[in-house]
From TrEMBL:
Residues 38-320 form the CHASE2 domain. It comes from Hyphomicrobium denitrificans 1NES1. The chain crosses the membrane at residues 12-31, 308-325, 331-348, 360-381. InterPro entries: CHASE2. Keywords: Membrane, Transmembrane, Transmembrane helix. SMART domains: CHASE2. This is Adenylate cyclase. The keyword Transmembrane applies.
Amino acid sequence: MSDREGLRSRLSKLSLAICFACAVALIALFYPTLRVKILKIEPWTADWRTVLLSDRVSISYPGIVVVIINNKTLEGYPYTSPTPRDLIAKVVRSVDAAHPAVIGLDFYFAKPTDKDNDLIGALRMAKAPIVVGAIDRRYPQFTPAEFDFQKQFLAATGRCAGYNELLHEKDDVVRYTAAPADPDYPESFALLVAKSVKPSDLPSPTRIAWLLGPDTDLDPFATISAETLFQDTGMDAATLGRAQEQAQRLNGKVVLISGEYPYLDRHRTPLSLWTGSNMLGVKIHANIVAQLVDGRRYFALSVVQQEILFATLSVLGFVLGWYFWRRRVDFLSLGVATVGLVVIDAIIFKSARIVLPFTLALWGWFIGATLGHHLHAVWAASKVRYTRPHDID
């Protein structure tokens, strides 16, 4: 055997080994444990897609204002947790006087305090529709007594309550809303808030349609510190004027009230890839309310649709890999295929609002193209070996 024939034989064996590896890679997708590991990068790629391609506003979102109770608001109060309920009552009265479309209280009330009646009275007297946040029985850290108190407290307010719909995935990132888990709270907090201004529907779970703001922090919602709304007697004219200006910003708006304290109620989201920080829970609720009011939604492929996409790209890659098997550098290379799939994925995400399984698609394309190329090489080598060895090229 000549050196040239020996080289071809070794290359044929290499191609055969690569074909075997492709077959193993294909079979691995049908084994759940390996499939999870292979597709582990999928959330990361989806998060970057979210950061770069989600809907954006050039100014603050016009329909929602977030009012926060922070350390500045709490000056003079003896404790911060739970948030003093007479302070929440004062904030509710100030917001209600500004004639908002609806007030959402993003707190939970699991323990009694000596100021409960102040808040109950403020909620019952308010003219605006009010939705109160609630914890449901998916949270094992709360005791039956705390759930019972919450139920009694919320009943006393006479207001509707919705469960916290933030769903944390295995990597502790919030990407979806959670399904109801407690018959006492069949609808979510954000859904009830949105329904107060527009008939809305929230399939559960559903991917959150994040809204990007004009600044690098990606926050599209105007935020007001609660104490700037207070209009007390004895204020100087300038301070009173500023409070009145702030109050005007709430007129006819969805107003979400929550606490903002260091390290509390902070959640990782897809936008954390860009900001490097966690998002306040009320801002996530604001994103969900905004998508419901706007009617924005993203769609994910079903399992069957994902399998069809994978099979289609695998077969297409195989056919092209077989046909272009002689080319040393061609459009079937992983790098070029990745760029092509990124472009297609971005167009579909932006225009059709469909979230494709990018990692699965790339995996199918690469396996198909590689298998087609090397299987043709093995077939050609075997054909030449047994028919016309002198024609090997």
